[in-house]
Amino acid sequence: MKPSRSGRNLAFGIATVGVSLALAFGNGSATAATWTPTPPVKANTIVLGVGAQESQRVLSWYTSTNTDQRVELVPTNWLNHGKFPTNAKKFAAVIGSNSVNGGFNAHATLDGLQQNTAYSYRIGNSDGWSPTYSFKTQSFKGDFDFLFYGDPQIGSSGDLAKDGAGWADTLNVSLAANPKAELLVSGGDQVESANTEADWDAFLGSDKLRQYPWAATIGNHDVGGKSYEQHFWTPNTDRSTPFYNGSQNTNSGGDYWYTYKGVLFIDLNSNAYANGADEAHIAYVTDVIKKHGKDAKYTVLVYHHSIYSPASHANDGDNQLRRKDFPTAFSNLGVDLVLQGHDHSYSRSYVLKNGQKANPAEQPGATSVVQGPGGVVYVTANSASGSKYYDLTDPDVTKDPNYGPDPLNPTNHYANSVENQEHVRTYVKVEVRDDKLMVENVRSGTCAAPNAAVERGNDKWCGPDEGASPAGKVGSLVDQVVIHTKGDNGHGNDGHNGGGSSNGGHGNDGHGHDDHDGPCWVSQTLGKLGSTLTALS
């Protein structure tokens, strides 16, 4: 991690401790209050965060004062020509000293939200209010989609404005294509330098981060100070010593979890890995699943450092350690999907059990797979901002003899069904359905601006096949797969009973196929399973 640059004071920002107040709206019409506009406070450090469950959101911000502040919240249709009524719900802020840049940071938990409701909010007090922002809840049960973003790392190209423009464009493109996406999930490395608030300003510049809940993940560029956890207050967070990278006094960190519409999300600080930290992470995941997994259809893990990295971090010593520590535990615990960042390139693993390919007949780039008992799919997201890309590397057994080539596609690492780098911004869409998860890697840009690493010449080529082919259109697919999760015996947290695997027609050429209803065969016996797999191959 590069050393942090000096920060600067901000006028408005985030929280260090949590509060949760009940939200209950009475019936009847709202009464408009007498309201005199005052100069707005600085608002580009306000961020809407994920809550512990569907009926919660967390707001975090910076502030220049530790005097009384609050969030006012109403159903949007209660506003009277933009004015808040006197009976708006009020949530007191918890305010703490900003240990990085002076001033203060604050947060409030909005609790008791109702489903299928548009809400509007503002932050401040009688001395001044932020602009009004809005968000919408969806149904609290059933299917939903969420979006996963890899390493914006604002500032890493050397041009802060270009990095911010690429990041804002990916948010705009992805949410225009998926306006009902319910969560924005981070792969970590929001910024280049953890304690440089100009980087955070650029990262938080888009109002989309005040309209959709951001589920933060800490990356290696987000440590070195407290800015990360001052900008993002996360629910159910364990900030005890094993989950920090170094000193609790200077570094952000912690593991946390939340539930959303039948999915148990567990987020790990993978910066902490040595001296028993991986064992502590596994113990944390085990405890959370033991307590809450029985109520979850799926378990999704999120952390920064991709253990099946296809690019420059493939054989880092810390990743070699995580490849030994994590996979068997995740299979035994019934984890369904693991989302990772750090490598600024895209990969999607085969269905892996205990770190090995669960079904030898699964073909590279298959668009339809069956999870099977203990099966886990690992996804690494490419850069969402275009600030930095890492080129794919060939498997190198001299550096790690246990991370060699895929016999079916020797240019790929053995674990990965798909590896891709085009020097084009992308994001990952995950569709959650009752009996399947659908994962797509989608282009959010082309070789044209905003694409800072290419614009600045940091990368000399752009497009598929190392620039030999033209880049696909915005919205086109790099990869997609349907992960069938329910076999004849159903899906549970004891290994997710299922079976089999289908071989889709997706090649490793960087182009996807619209095949959300690909074939799925599930065997009732091992004999039938073997016959089916033979027929499929």
TrEMBL record:
Biased composition (Gly residues): 495-507
Keyword set includes Signal: yes
Highest taxon listed in the record's lineage: Bacteria
All residue ranges annotated as the Calcineurin-like phosphoesterase domain in the record: 146-346
Basic and acidic residues biased stretches: 485-494, 508-518
EC numbers, comma separated: 3.1.-.-
Full protein name: Metallophosphoesterase family protein
Organism placement in taxonomy: Bacteria, Bacillati, Actinomycetota, Actinomycetes, Pseudonocardiales
